[in-house]
Amino acid sequence: MVRVGTEDILFPTAIIGSYPRAPFLHGKVLGEFEEPDFVDFDKRTLYEMAVSQAVLEQERAGVDIVSDGQQYQEFDTDYEYHQHFQFVPHRAAGFKRYGEPIVVELYKMFHAPTVVGDIKWVRPMLRPVLDTVKQWATKPVKLGIIGPLTQSVAVTDHYYQDPKKMAMAMAEVYNDELRDLSRRGCDQFTLHEPWPYFEPEPWHLEVWRRTLEGVDAYTVWHICYGNQGGNPGVLADKGKDMFPLGFDAGFDQIEIECKRRQFADLPALKGFPKDLDLGVGLIDVKSSVTETPEEVADDIMRVLDSGVVDPERLSVTMDCGLGNIKRVPARKKVEAMVQGAALARTRLEGRG
To answer: Rounded distance, CA 162 to CA 177, Å?
Structure first.
């Protein structure tokens, strides 16, 4: 079964990362560059309240791994991905705030911070997030962040002038951050890497392996197809381009979007490695319509019947983050996911 903290769980459940932001929390929360961890004590207090609520709703729904819900991101605006793409650069050495628009069409509304020197890890970035969520969570904790490969193209590079060098330098920064978090007790870490946007290259795997080197935590690769305001960034099926090459990226688990894409990438996972776990997104976060537990259970059994992965190595999650959905439908979707996983466990037992 999939290892979750100190337990082995059949079909463990978790959200991808984001959860609807608390309505009383607005604006910037975490400090950047030379600023302290929090912009002020009032915002810190409100943030702690928001995280406690996100954790409470996840734990009441019964998820097995609890997320911070990325309450520090401004999902109350159209520009939450601005923070998504700037989170690491604004806390590392070698960057200036200003840059050209990001080259990906879906995200051209956001500027890309400029690389002006050697980029280095100079401070814990997600430590205040981990410290806050661990105040409230009674279950294993996961954090997530945009990955180093994606981050390397979401900057204006005036220094390295070489995509691989840029990405490998970014991997060093991420490695320092992930090792710091693992030492502080983060149980699981998700890198959001939308490989469908890229032309897959073998050196991409080098970037991820260096990122994960020495990280003592369970690591997950969320393959994102884009989710800006509920809109996908890539419509074409990319599984055949990503696999089997992506099997060797070095993660403990690969997560794929299934529900929205109608399992289009599942056939490309033929030959899925026996030492790798698979996470399947069975909740469509680009729709406010709530799935039923029976629907989720049916989809779990569909994945198992495909023969791609054994039940003991399957995790259940969502297509992407819930930050763009209102709180009540988001909560109901989480509940349906958890109840569907429980129903699938019963069905599997019934098969003998």
So the answer is: 23
The answer to whether 113 and 89 are in contact (CB under 8 A) is: yes
Question: What is the average per-residue pLDDT within 54-76?
Answer: 94
pLDDT, tens digit (0-9, with 9 covering 90-100), for 79-91? 777 788 899 999 9
Q: Which two tokens stand for residue 332?
A: 């109901």
C-alpha to C-alpha distance for 158 and 116, rounded to whole angstroms: 6
Rounded CA separation 90/246 (Å): 29
Instruction: Give the count of beta carbons closer than 10 Å to the beta carbon of residue 130.
Output: 18
**For position 352, what pLDDT does the model report?**
65
The three-class DSSP label of residue 327 is helix
Whole-model pTM?
Answer: 0.94
**Residue with tokens 């200003």, as numbered in its chain:** 98
Of 215, 276, 205, the C-alpha closest to 246 is 205
Rg of the chain over Cα atoms, rounded to whole angstroms, equals 19
Per-residue pLDDT reduced to its tens digit, 249-283: 999 999 999 999 999 999 999 999 999 999 999 99
Integer distance in angstroms from the first to the last C-alpha of the chain? Answer: 17
Full strand arrangement of the beta sheet holding 253-257: 66-67, 141-146, 188-192, 218-222, 253-257, 277-281, 314-317
- Report whether 88 contacts 145 (CB < 8 A): yes
CATH tag, 2-347 = 3.20.20.210
Non-local (6+) Cβ contacts of 13 within 8 A are: 62, 63, 64, 65, 315, 316, 317, 337, 338, 341
Query: CA quadruple 338, 144, 108, 226: dihedral positive or negative?
Result: negative
What are the angstrom distances between the C-alpha of 213 and each of 80, 159, 173, 179, 235?
30, 25, 12, 9, 33
